[in-house]
Design a protein that fits this description.
- With about 325 residues, the chain is an alpha/beta fold.
- The protein folds into 2 domains: about 200 residues, Rossmann fold, CATH 3.40.50.720; about 90 residues, UDP-galactose 4-epimerase, domain 1 (Alpha-Beta Complex).
- The protein is about 40% helix and about 20% strand.
- It has 10 helices and 14 strands.
- The strands form 4 sheets. A 7-stranded parallel β-sheet has the order 3-2-1-4-5-6-11, with helices on both faces. A 3-stranded mixed β-sheet has the order 12-9-14.
- Helix 1 packs across helix 7, helix 2 runs parallel beside helix 4 and helix 6 packs across helix 10.
């Protein structure tokens, strides 16, 4: 297929772009590079642009005869969204509406949407399923849920085919050590831990130890970015116009913040400074994926099924790229 990946120079987007190319698809990346890294994708497929520029986006969809859009573009920090909700609703919701309108005008009727497990009501035990109750608890999560609803409504009214992929904590780096996680500012747990291990941060902060979990810290399902990419490509190849697919992507195993720190210490070979501070607004107690539907319908399974293996790939990246892609 001919695919346009919005935000395709970002962490998950670029991993998926590389996977698409490996599977023989034609791909172009549309990214304004505010957070993306051009080094993470082949330079000849990058189109620098903003979703707010509807005429430019329309011209690209038409000139490249795009069959499907993979929509990764958007802001992703829970904490920042609490401080800047207006920015999140404009950048995530308004820009996604512009994208859908432009796709409609260009006659592009397939979209794969990079969503989040944060749309669910948190559960104290057991994995979340695709039909679990929804209860987004931050502006970031609300914006993602609004984007899902817009896509579903476009499907009903205009025959769009869509896949909503709700994934959990993306992490890890490519097995060859060339591509990894590089955000500025960094907000994700595993790279923050490894930066502290490298002495680039004084310590790792643990936001709350009074949650209803065995050790009091939040529990998450950590999924390797290459396994996420594989699921995106499988969803694309299964999707038909007018069809609606919804999948969780995760390992089904939850690890607490303290467990992840302990495993990281074993991987790096020394203790990592840490400090417990107050809870962070918008954080859920427990988010673990029930991914049986994805495994059954698309024959998907994670190559990296435990957090130790994931951290080892991330550690290889951070040691060889201490300044990220600018190393």
């Amino acid at each position: 297929m001919k695919v346009l990946a919005t935000g395709g120079a970002g962490y998950v987007g670029s991993a998926t772009v590389r996977c698409l190319l490996d599977h023989g698809h034609q791909v172009w990346v549309y990214d304004n590079l505010t957070t993306g890294h051009p080094q993470s994708i082949p330079p000849e497929i990058l189109i620098e642009g903003d979703l707010q520029n509807k005429p430019n986006l329309l011209a690209i969809l038409r000139s490249h005869k795009i069959d499907a859009v993979m929509h990764f573009a958007g802001s992703i920090s829970v904490g920042e969204s609490v401080e800047k909700p207006a920015f999140y609703y404009r950048n995530n919701v308004v820009n996604s509406l512009i994208l859908l309108e432009t796709m409609l005008e260009a006659g592009v009727q397939r979209i794969i949407f990079s969503s989040t497990a944060a749309v669910y009501e948190p559960k104290s035990d057991g994995p979340l399923q695709e039909d679990s109750p929804k209860g987004p608890s931050s502006p970031y999560a609300v914006s993602k849920y609004a984007m899902e609803r817009m896509i579903e409504d476009f499907s009903v009214a205009y025959g769009f085919g869509y896949a909503l992929l709700r994934y959990f904590n993306a992490c890890g780096a490519s097995s060859d050590g060339r591509f990894g996680e590089d955000h500025n500012p960094e907000t994700h747990l595993i790279p923050l831990i490894l930066k502290a291990a490298l002495g680039q941060r004084d310590k790792i902060y643990i936001f709350g130890d009074d949650y209803d979990t065995p050790d009091g810290t939040c529990i998450r399902d950590y999924i390797h970015v290459d396994d996420l990419a594989d699921a995106h490509v499988r969803a694309l190849e299964a999707l038909e116009p007018g069809q609606g697919l919804v999948y969780n992507i995760g390992t089904g195993v939850g690890n607490s913040v303290l467990e992840v720190i302990r495993i990281a210490e074993e991987v790096v070979g020394h203790e990592i400074p840490q400090e417990i501070v107050a809870r962070r607004a918008g954080d859920s107690t427990r988010l673990v994926a029930g991914s049986e539907k994805l495994r059954r319908e698309l024959d998907w399974s994670p190559r990296y099924d435990n957090v130790r293996d994931i951290i080892e790939t991330a550690w290889q990246w951070h040691r060889s790229h201490p300044q990220g892609y600018n190393s």
